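ARCHIVE CARD
Drawer: 12
Card no.: 0347
Subject: one protein chain, sequence and derived structure
Cross-reference: see card 0346
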Amino acid sequence: MEDCLFAKIALFRSEKSSMSKVEPLLCDLRNKVKIPDDRFYNLLIAATEAFNNAIVHGNKLDPQKIVEVELICKEGSLQINIRDEGEGFDPEQVADPREPENLLKENGRGIFLIKSLIDKVHIDTSDSGTTVEMIFNY
């Protein structure tokens, strides 16, 4: 990985207890590179949302399935890839949470939130899982 300052891959079981483990991973990264506070919290919210979606919606809380978090840090940018082993989905079919009929729904804001907080988002999905690739400039 050319110009890579830091790279790490972490694997997590798809259990609710894993949801608290992504924040320390990102805080460790923050200690290695200089990310301004306001930008870091945007990153933290988006990555946590993608991670939780992978555990709950992708892997359906199946502890036999793994969520992989890959961090690739370059000068001025960070790429976070979050992969699940679920059945995939069509991101274009996710309803817009700003539409009146969706305002009171309990779910459905995650992808919108991620795209609002991250500079570039790409979602690759198939019947063997989904990868959310987030590129964050700091």
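Annotation on reverse: Residues 1 and 72 are 9 Å apart (CA to CA). The chain has one domain: 4-137.
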